[in-house]
Design brief:
CATH superfamily: monomeric porin ompg
CATH class: Mainly Beta
Number of helices: 1
Strand order of the largest sheet: 1-4-5-6-7-8-9-10-11-12-13-14
Strand content: over 45%
Radius of gyration: 17 Å
Largest sheet: 12 strands, antiparallel, barrel
Number of strands: 14
Shape: globular
Number of domains: 1
Length: 226
């Protein structure tokens, strides 16, 4: 469960209100689709991609998709995340992104679809704080609030380091809240292509909630933006 609006928040380049309308996109191949610390493909590869249309006012609409594999099988083989939002500069060094996100799983036979409201604040394009809230977190019919802080460190024009630390506050009636984090290195070897190696880790609460899908794992991805 990821979205075009949230993938690469570390590199968020919020548009000023004077920007012209534009259509952008991305495509990628990853060794494991990891969402909030847990595998969504049973540690198998995923093909992903998205499109985003941004109006000159900063309003935007986006769609992002990936294949998924869950156990036990619930009929879902794909995920589409649809977002409507606004992004823009608050000040010279500060940017804001707020959006409504719909997680859609065609073919699911157990009602996996759910909604979330998100906001992210970025400072100097290298540090960010993101919050997401849903009254139906992960289609559980209970509330959940997701908080994340992240940073990236450009080493040179081709290499950068990135790291995140997050806490998912869940309703006790559904599951224990859990924590996860990641650290990664990105190689922008030839525009518009990047290679990314990310190490993910979760706490024991995530392992109880997602048996076999949480814990420590590595993710290798090749992606392109256009």
């Amino acid at each position: 469960m990821a979205s075009f609006a949230t993938v690469g928040v570390a590199a968020m380049a919020a548009l000023p209100s004077t920007a012209t309308a534009q259509l952008t996109g991305n495509a990628g191949l990853t060794s494991d689709y990891v969402w909030r610390g847990t595998s969504q493909t049973l540690e198998k590869p995923a093909i992903q991609g998205g499109l985003k249309y941004t109006h000159g006012s900063g309003l935007y609409a986006s769609v992002w998709g990936s294949n998924v594999t869950f156990k036990p099988d619930n009929g879902a083989t794909s995920e589409f995340d649809i977002a409507l939002g606004w992004s823009g500069k608050l000040a010279q060094d500060w940017a804001l992104d707020v959006y409504y996100l719909r997680y859609q799983y065609p073919g699911s036979d157990i009602g996996l679809n759910w909604n979330e409201v998100n906001a992210a604040v970025t400072w100097r394009d290298n540090y960010w704080l993101a919050v997401g809230h849903s009254t139906n977190a992960m289609a559980s019919k209970t509330r959940g609030t997701y908080t994340l802080i992240g940073a990236r460190y450009p080493i040179n024009d081709q290499w950068r380091m990135e790291g995140t630390l997050a806490r998912y506050f869940l309703d006790n009636a559904y599951a224990d809240s859990y924590t996860h984090g990641s650290v990664g290195v990105v190689w922008a070897f030839k525009a518009p292509f990047e290679a990314r190696l990310t190490l993910h880790g979760t706490d024991s609460a995530a392992k109880r909630l997602f048996p076999g899908m949480a814990g420590t794992r590595a993710e290798l991805a090749l992606q392109a933006s256009f």
